[in-house]
Amino acid sequence: MWQLLFYVNVPVFFSVVVVGAVVAFLGVLLKRGNERLVTGVCRVVLAVSLLAYVIVLVEPVDGWGRIGGGGVNVSLIPFDFLSGEHVTENSLHWEEWMLNILLFLPLGIVAALLFTRWVRWLLGPLVSLTVEMAQAVLATGRQSALDDLLANSLGYLIGVTLVLLAGAVLSRRGRAERVVV
What we know:
Number of domains: 1
Helix content: over 70%
Organism: Nocardiopsis alba
Pfam family, one: VanZ
Low-confidence stretches: 176-181
Domain VanZ-like: 45-165
Shape: globular
Largest sheet: 2 strands, parallel
Keywords: Membrane, Transmembrane, Transmembrane helix
Number of helices: 6
Mean pLDDT: 78
Transmembrane segments: 6-30, 37-58, 97-115, 122-141, 153-170
């Protein structure tokens, strides 16, 4: 059933990014009104998200009872999804790339609402690196790929950027209203 997620097309991708932008704006607005509530909700969402990433992305192909039995498959070639030997006309590599971006976009939004400075920028790439390393070290039968790290990090950074842009737009708007009044 989860394989349906691989059928992400460009309109769906951009629709999800737009929804992410709306969520980022709402998060910034709500945080200005009730920072404590938004921070608490974001902490819960962050904890649940991290657990979901581990369960979904690190789980061995044949289940948790098969740790070490799936073999190690590591790809350190950047942008291999574009022209690797495994790419065929029917492969879903673009869809997988878009899905990986979308998978980490919400984490970027939540982290930007929770953290400041360097934690805000590094959490997503570090989580992605941890997932990819765990896939390789635990021999889960999944491919641990530099492409996944790049796509996940890009999605995360898009999420962070959406929150920062929302904050900048709302701050500018607030200043304009104060000047007019």
